[in-house]
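User: I'm putting together notes for a lab meeting next week and I want to include a structural view of one of the chains we've been expressing. I don't have a solved structure, so I'd like a prediction I can at least talk through. The sequence is below, exactly as it appears in our construct file.
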Amino acid sequence: MIGQSGKYVIRLEEKYNVKITFPRGLSENAEGRSREHLKPDQVFVKGGKRGVAGAKSELLDAAEFEKESNNVIQFSLPARAIPRVLGRGGATIRQIKDDTDAMIDLDKAEDGSGATVTCRGSKKAITAAKTAIQAIVDQIGEEATEVLTIESKFHRTLIGGRGQGLRNLIVRCGGPTDTKAQAGLVRLCVLPYFECLFVLTMSV
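Assistant: Thanks for the context. Below is the predicted structure for the 204-residue chain, given as structure tokens.
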């Protein structure tokens, strides 16, 4: 609320022709300014009646905005869900941030057991972000993985041009139509003797 170097408070003082004093211990809003004996949750506004009312109104609005936009929630993310939540090149987590307006940080555990997700923002934003992430986790919990060995002569037909064959296969099996959601559901692992493994992960 004070602003960097007291810029916000100074602007209010000049706008309403008032003097605004914050409790001791907070950032200085002007050098050499005397301070009233205030409690930690009090702000002193001195000036004309209209000026004090205007400054008070803006200060209360600013406090309400900060209160609403500085909510924080933390929750755990299982290790198996981390790649899907992040997405290729971080695309999925960026999309969730854009869709919800929440700030999201993901800290992986050193032992590889999972990660801690921290969401910051308004109550609506952080709730929406957690819901979106939890939906991905729930989807992974409903999936099963099968490993298939397929001769190399069938590879091109299965994969198709630019991977379109695999994308069509996922849709025909009841998987998502969105290409971002399809990422990682089918993985190709080339083996010796001109064979390969198709690792197929789908909902059960």
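A couple of points you could mention at the meeting. Confidence is low (pLDDT under 50) at residues 27-34. Residues 71-141 form a domain with the Ribosomal Protein S8; Chain: A, domain 1 fold (CATH 3.30.1370.10).

User: Perfect, that's what I needed.
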